Amino acid sequence: MYGRGQQQMSFGPPMTPPIIKQLLIANLAVFIAQHFFAPLNEFGTIVPAEFWEQGYLWQPFTYMWMHSPSGIAHIALNMFALWMFGTPLAMAWGPKRFLRFYLVCGVGAGMFIATYPYFMVPFDPTGIYAHTLGASGAIYGVLLAYSLTWPDRTIALIFPPIAFRAIWLIPGLFVMSMLFSGGRSISHIGHLGGVVVAWIYLSSSGHAGPISFSQIKHRWKRYRMRQKLRAVRYEEFERQRERDERRKFH
Asked: What is the pLDDT, as a whole number, of residue 210?
């Protein structure tokens, strides 16, 4: 990942602020506790029916500290994203502002997760009994804030091996999660909830600059213009190459 205008590429931030370390440790501690205290997995996850009908009001907060105990991929990916993209935000905003934003996005996404299944009861009556856990809602909020704070930074992925501007990070992740979920149970509504809550939070506070659909539309038009310009340049290159080839044979 590197910023436009920089001379070299770097992997990850140069330092990790204390607030990020503390969040990483907290998530890891809860993950370990899940293995030694099994009831925690039932107590802390979000179950819409339990939240709305049985008064389990703590769930939109506790779910965001828990991860699937069946493997490390879930927590590893979330914590990597928190470290990679949360560190620059925490350094720019300060620990209190970053922690407040992180918690608001996580809890807000939890409310989305707890509420949305009730709108889908006519189509999926079992959805209100589904269990959801993970920090992804808060992480997606962090990713949105990063992409709006530094929209022109270039992000280079190892897999797939592509590079793109940070402004396209969230749309790209949504597409990839849809295409490569591999049958896994992924809370897309939780991801969307984190993005929506982050968008509202940042719009009202102005921490990430102007945020509007017109801005995104403007960037899309610029992207399309650059693509057309590349196509024109490529056509000119091909025509010049053909002319050079003909001169060689004549």
From this structure: 47
DSSP code per residue over 32-60: HHHHH-THHHHHHSB-HHHHHHS--TTHH
Same domain, 163 and 231: no
Other CB atoms within a 10 A radius of the CB of residue 165 amount to 16
Residue 224 counted as domain residue? yes
Q: How many domains does the chain have?
A: 2
Predicted model pTM: 0.79
**In this predicted model, what pLDDT tens digit does every residue of 177-225 receive, in sequence order?**
877 665 567 888 999 999 999 999 998 876 555 455 566 666 667 767 8
DSSP label of 2: B
How many angstroms from the chain centroid is the CA of residue 152?
17
Q: Could you give the 3-state DSSP secondary structure of residue 156?
A: strand
CA distance 250 to 245: 9
114's CB contacts (< 8 A; 6+ apart) are: 46, 48, 51, 52, 59, 60
- Hey, CA dihedral for 45, 48, 52, 54, is it positive or negative? negative
Determine the pLDDT at residue 6: 43
Domain of residue 240 covers 214-250
Q: How far apart are CA 231 and CA 239, in angstroms?
A: 12
Residue 33 burial (CB count, 10 A): 15
Query: Which own/partner contact pairs does 42-45 have at CB distance under 8 Å and 24+ positions apart?
Result: 42/131, 44/133, 45/131, 45/132, 45/133
Strand blocks (E) in 58-167: 154-156, 163-165
Q: How many CB atoms lie within 10 A of CB 108?
A: 22
- Written as six digits, the tokens of 164 are 């793109």
